[in-house]
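diguanylate cyclase structure dump, as promised
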Amino acid sequence: MLWLNGHIARLAKLKMTRTTKAKSWITSLLLISLSLSLLGLSPLSQAQEDSAEEIDAIFKKFDQGEYKDQQAIKEALGYLTANITADDMERYLKLQTVLCWNNYDITKQQALKDAIAFADLKLLTEGVAASAEATTDLKLCRAFMHQLLGKVDIALEEYNKVVAEAYLIESPRLIADSRSLRGAIYSFQGNFAQALEDLITAQHLYESLNLQHWAIYNLTELATSYRRFGDPQTAIKYYRKLEKGFEDTGDKDGANAIKTEIGFALEELGEYEAALKKHKEAYQYWRDTLGEEASAHTAVNVAGVLIQLHRQGEAKPYLDAAQKSITPDQGASYSFMRLYQAQSALTNGQYQQALDYIDMAEETFKQIKNARGLEQLHMVHSQIFVAEKDWKQAYEALLSYIQTHKSLDATQQTNRTTEMRTRFNTEQIERENQQLLELQKIKENELVILKQNKYLQLAVIVLGCIIMIILSIVAYKQSQKSKLLSILALTDHLTQLPNRRYTYSKGEGYFKSKDEGHQPLSIILFDADHFKKVNDKYGHDIGDKVLIALANISNGLMRKQDLVGRVGGEEFLVILPGTTAEQALNVAQRLVTTVESSNFDDVYMNFKLTISAGIACTDGDKSFEHLLKRADDALYRAKSSGRNCAILDT
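structure tokens r here:
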């Protein structure tokens, strides 16, 4: 079976029309615009202002995958390039990612290399480097181009990094895109446990984001995974619905690509004549619309079925046509083409030629880590040696086949258990997440199919206890992920000050760098006096408002280079780089005085508040923690001294 499974063919015309959300520069642009407007100027030309609405509409079409015609894509990219400048940073960043995904003919090897070079160049630019989402999206585009070049290991390694980065920046779209692409590779390599987890996660995200176009394509990969997993009946149910969905929307490329997938499923059911019909329809379509080169992959599919039907004579023209366009760097198509050529040569008694083809196929199968392909190859290899009466090598090849077959069988039960866990977890997420948008009808059909799967229903009974354990593990993992995302947020949600993690991190950084610049570093640790009584007497709502007011007062008193962070309930930490102990004490005393004299009537009528502060300045401290402890000790002494004061640790 070919990994591309028509994937290259359908993408050849559609490509991957996507975009991403870049870091926002809107605030800066608005300030510049306001300043220049006061002078009677404008940072944007009238033409740019007039076209902004149309530009955003084009981006939305790319994001939704609405462009299906290459000429329309070319015209849209031309318009965007002509009307977006680097001054409009938000749209400029979007344009770079759109260009990477859509401006290159992915059926051409050189174009794929050009796309990789484009991504590499853009990743070095200052504007892109400042945007985590643009950077991550360009890396994803680059990985996909490596995948199409047959560099699967490089692609998979980069997909892993992109998935991690997408979670760090909390971008659902990039999480969906990267896990969908990674899941397709895992599926091809026979790693169905990982494939199903990735593809089902991506499916859920696409549907919740209402990205129906990409949900359909991801569902295609999901169906293909079920086919490879050994459940072609379920796969065909998916494919039939997908085929109708593509036809209803007028997406001929998508509908035709599904014919290839149905053909593969029919092959696995042993219905070779029906499979041949589907593959021939797909081949003829791509040949008529895109030419011989683009149809080469489906030509290999046709030849494979003809060989199964022992019609090698009819298969040869298809293999000859494919050989003109398919090169070794197109790993999946190339490996199966050589395998089928070996089978054809074996039938014609050309044993040495068959062995040469086997060697070519084996090298590529190993390179792309396709265990299922190697399993077929070892059997053909053994048959060649049997035909030559070389019983020893025939036996060794047969042993390799058995070993590969056992290896695949050994993972099957684990994969099925994981499949059940993944399916069950998806249903749990669906029930619990009340904010999701209305799921597509195809998703509802998918759930029905999953529930009706007889084999898995029996597995539920047998593995009930195990599933309960797995469910607990999944719930724990989800909890850990949520905690991780919370930890990664660098801003305190209430006061909008830096949170404890970020504040301590900056403090560590200043502490390590102060020796290099020989600059003193001072810190002020302060908190609200008797804050528990505030909450008890006025309620937590008033307490929150007090903390917000305290944050605003303290932040307003500091210099630009100073940092104020909330490090506890009512506890705040001020980091003062380049500040002596005497200067820090003055700052702290001014802070204490300002808070005491501040008007808190907007919080609560006649409300008064005081704070206590502890100050410490670097003086032989071995670590930032030690400096922090000194400030904490000073704060304790301030509390013991009657509060509403600042004490310097000496």
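Confidence is low (pLDDT under 50) at residues 1-45, 429-441.
lmk if u need the other ones
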